[in-house]
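Researcher: Here's my situation. A collaborator sent me these components and asked whether they could plausibly form a single complex. I don't have experimental data yet, so a predicted model of the whole assembly would be a useful starting point for our discussion.
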Amino acid sequence: MSIRDLKGPSRWWALAGCLIWLAFTLFPLYWAVITSFKSPLGVVGGPTYIPFVDFEPSLTAWSELLSGARGQFYATFIASSIIGISASLLATFIGAMAAYALVRFTFEVRLLSAVIFVFVAFGGFLIGRHALGLGQAISLIYAFVAALVLAIGSSRIRLPGPVLGNDDIVFWFVSQRMFPPIVTAFALYLMYTEMGKMGFKLVDTYTGLTFAYVAFSLPIVIWLMRDFFAALPVEVEEAAMVDNVPTWRIFFGIVLPMSKPGLIATFMITLAFVWNEFLFALFLTNSKWQTLPILVAGQNSQRGDEWWAISAAALVAIIPMVVMAGILSRLMRSGLLLGAIK
Amino acid sequence: MTRQDPIKHFFIWPAVLIVLVISIFPLIYSLTTSFMSLRLVPPIPARFVGFGNYTELLQNPRFWRVTWTTTIIAVTSVMLQYIIGFAVALALNRRVPGEGLFRVSFLLPMLVAPVAVALIARQLLNPTMGPLNEVMTFFGFPNLPFLTQTYWAIGAITAVEVWQWTPFVILMLLAGLQTLPDDVYEAAALENASPWQQFIGITFPMMMPISAAVVFIRLIESYKIIDTVFVMTGGGPGISTETLTLFAYQEGFKKFNLGYTSALSFLFLIVITVIGLIYLAVLKPYLEKHR
């Protein structure tokens, strides 16, 4: 009995509050499940609550959905899974490398180099676009390369001005998340269209959407994995360094296996984010690589009040993540993730 | 301690390059476009208009209306999320009976696709066939216009936001509560401090930094709301529940008014930055006091 445990009546008040919140949390999900088992007539007849007691369950919605009569669920489900899993794997891997570098190595970027980068990128684009009359995409690419080369080159010289360290780089990564995604999504759509005119089809392709998701997940991956790597004991790595093990082998052979729990947790969080993401998919896909949220949202306007079908469609999007949450909490309880979530 | 090693470039460049490309390209593109008059449908050649798009937007009552709607939804839902989330986190931290079950099921909503949540909410709120209508009819209020009248619709969207994101607040605050030291509470118990005094005097001040961070994250995220509104009301009735992101989507993707949309998204960025700065400025004295 610790000092924190509730005693007396307040314990029961807290329990009552939690139960109310539990009902509020679970009722919508329960409702979706039972509605998906109602027959069309059972839905129109007014609300009913308990299967077998006040309505007779039917498999109409599910058989229609699984037979493909309700739009391309199989294709969309597969597209969603492929994009979700590959984007999260890539983001976790690339982000983990960057996070590790930011924890263990020293980075110094002159503020002036960053300023040079932004100016050359903007100026180069404007010059290419308006003075030289190049296309949008071409001038963007030239400006980007020129800016990058100049910025890296300038960081070799000892420029005056403040120096940005590891923490500033992390802040830069994380601050990308503050951006309203509409800014990025809309511009990205236009950019992809421009690229499409040059022969690289990116709108409604696997590459285009996955790339956008990787970039958008990286900030959160770096943020999570940085805390995790920082908590790892540095002694093991030092011992390996004494034995002259190359750094890349320390990372892949020692650090990554040690941080498996953190990697799994980060992967799952990223996957949930990508799986449920709506705005980017709305802008960047139109048919072939459409993801589940778009298809599910479309059910609304296409089907009106056919709730049995809508519920089944919504559940297809919900169930994989609920299963994943179950696995995640299992892992947490079994101690595999101990220390991963602080 | 950090160290020097040339291999560090190999580790960090993939991430830097990807984020740079995806952030700087759109930034350059939309910032330059925002100073031009550019339409795809009907196609008009680009023309430099300076701050034309911005002034036009600032004079557009729809922009202010949309900003106001978004602010109302964001502020009320985050407030409710924080109050409910804090209460639930306190209860879970004090090992309410059945805590293990609550912990798992309370986190569920966060993982559900917002689009799916909105679809389910539409069914629950249906004014003639939904279960909520039956409850309200029982209390003598039949056929309330949950999604078709401005105030009800905003309330419904707020409720859905609260349902979906309170779990995040619970998760973060619970993690914070578990790091609080026991001995302070033991001392307070010896002094016969009432539970309320303990909360006001100890728990709340010590939770201030994490609370500030949680509310900040939620506030910024709430301003980006689109999917729930998109499905639940489509911005209607009229434009009365339209949010900033939805407005930008309508202008950009339905009317293909590129310059205007780019200007709008930058104004949006400015709005978010201003709100963030005000929030930090208001909170700073409190945070420093409790450091």
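Model: Some features of this prediction you could bring to your collaborator: Residues 150 and 238 of chain B are 9 Å apart (CA to CA). The radius of gyration of chain B is 24 Å.
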